[in-house]
Amino acid sequence: MVEIKSMATNLDEILAGSRDGDRVAQHKLYERFQRAVYGLAARLVGHREAPDVTQEIFLRVFAGLSSFRGSADFSTWIYRVAINECLRYHRSARPAADGLCSEPPSREAPPERHLEEMEAIEWALGCLEPPLRAVFLLRHSEEMNYKQISTVLGVPISTAATRLARARAELQRLLKGIVQGS
User: Fold this and answer.
1) Please, what are the domains in the chain?
2) 74 phi/psi in degrees, rounded to 5
3) Which of 45, 159, 174, 180 is least surrounded, with the fewest CB atoms within 10 Å of its CB?
4) Cβ proximity of 6 and 24 under 8 Å
């Protein structure tokens, strides 16, 4: 009996097919993780650059699948690839990403208070240094625990905790300035 790899539905089968060059399996892997990877990239490098960075992330994922040993969850590994690629993007000579921290949001409140708050938070996140933004997003957007964050970032748990505390303090300082200024 011939086994059709492209019909794989569980992650192990999809990974095996992707490693073997099965285009359908690779597409399934992309579909399974694209939304989360794109969302993380958009928050780390800006919406304008997120499609290109997401593409680079998946190119690195597919090129590096043979190095995935399975000692951590695949989702942890792909987040690590994504974070590394976003940080690499920030280190490159490209201009500031999407004006993430160009100017504070307007103090003239739109009718929806929630929209104003979201705009302020997005602006403040854009002002954080990329490593601080990454740890904050992994904790609060991706709901990872400290151990998962330390694995994704490749740092000790204490370093992840320290970065998260620094990110929170910096966000509080930035947002306090907006609230006091309104």
Assistant:
1) 1-99 (1.10.1740.10), 101-182 (1.10.10.10)
2) -60, -40
3) 180
4) yes
